[in-house]
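Continuing the series of single-chain predictions for the mutant panel. This is the parent chain; the variants come on the following pages.
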Amino acid sequence: MKSRMHAFTYAIAATLAAAACMPGTGPPGGPAAGTPDQPSRQKSTVVGITNAVDTMPTMGSSTTSGGWQSLNELYAQGLVTSDRDIQRPVPRLAAKLPTLDDGSIEIQPDGRMRVVYPVRRDVTWHDGTPFTARDLAFAFDVNSDRNLPRVNVDAIGQMESVEATDDHTFVITFKGPYYQADSIGLRAFWPHPRHILEEPYRNRDAEAFTNLSFWTSPEYVHLGPFRLVEFRVGEELTFEAYDRYFLGQPKLDRIIVRVYNDDNVLFAAVKAGAVDMLMDNSLATELTLQLKDEWDRTGGGTVHVGTGTTRFIAPQFDPELQQNPAVLDLRVRQALMYALDRRAISEAVQFGHGELAANSLLPPGDLLFDAVKDGWARYAHDPGRARSILEQAGWRLGGDGILLGPGERPFSTTLWTTQGGLNEISIIADFWKQIGISADVFEVAGALVRNREYRQSYSGFETSARGSGDSILTRMDSRQSATGPAYAGSNRGHYVNPRFDDLIDRYRQTLDVQERGQVVRTISELMVEELPVMLLYFNPTHPAVRQGIKAFDDFIGGAEASRLAGTFSRNAHEWDLQ
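Parent structure:
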């Protein structure tokens, strides 16, 4: 599958000459290796992310903002991940991928799909307990529990039941055909240690289970190359190499994940040498492209650039949360879209790259791009048309330049964003002001970004992003509405349209690529008409690594964190100092 945008020249910078170390210091991330007269010292590196981490998955937020979710495969593993140099599924906890050819994927007479995953026999949890298919069967109960936070329900929602027929055979029965049945990665299905969690899960309520110390301390165990040894909530997490990792001893001894609640502070830390690595969206695009420009000139490191997330504006559709009922009027949303110069917005926030404006549901390079190409091009910048639509909807311009509606009520709204997005929403607010709409801008504090209940409470619009592929569909799936008590869904705008739900199911249950393209075209056309979200631009993914550290050699086969399988940390056991 092609997976890189051709609208933007994605130069992957070659590693240049090593940056000189200050006198008396060692290589990036840790002290120098030992000499014959000095014992060997540990090899370590520091990864910088933004927005506070208050708990380990899956009890925390599923947002990919800030880079934390991109580190999932540092300490955890799924059945499947992505290959090194191409985005295709390869087995990880699974001994092999299921296929139609060998009968491990079977369409049953009643239309359901049965999928058999053989499980590796050499995997252990970080406490040394053997991993088995029975852990996966237990994990299904946790992952499908609507009272608990969930990382992703795209695949889980298609599953009818699971079974561990023995310790090394895991069987999934899907409700119908599922197009990613051979790609059940970590985000799609998160394994849980049955020997630790089954007793409290069966015998305690959801709140007590969510608040177990397991999720916020070194009690947490999983199956990845590094195990959690220290968790300073909101500040720093320390991971050490797990010497029984089934793919071999990790080359680094320690990885420190340092949390910054301000993009500019993290950017300064990278430039000062206090941070060695950034994940794909640790920093805002504008800052990361600045870093790329500097490192390309100085040889300070490499910023890889590829297809990332899709940026959009999401209206709030819950009438109890939406402060301005006019937003629920389709004509108003259409006017707001025509008011935006999305190319200019992309140029302003993406280092001059206006060609990344999103005129299609899927990005260039996606397998189904041709089916949706230029579907959103109708919303070219046209403030005159925006004013005309608003006038037809009953809004007139007041003396102060602000639109007035019934009862002389002024048109006001709010725009929320997360760290690094303030410039973006200020530009959006300015475009809306030009047609008479007053929009207050608000940046969510880093400490609240992973607060699920808070994030779904925005009262006007929020700017956000989802994976560049079809994961954006979750933002209009009513079954993923972020409702209590867990507030776990990704549909924070609470959009509800049964037709969308049906089309999303058809899309995921269609195995033929051409037929699936026809369904996604219909979805795109309905999105353009209804505007459950308002597309802005494609946001490049950009993991970065300082000179002197070997990492991200497998960049081409990886993906940003909202994909079901294969993050940029999937081969963290190979990361090393050079």
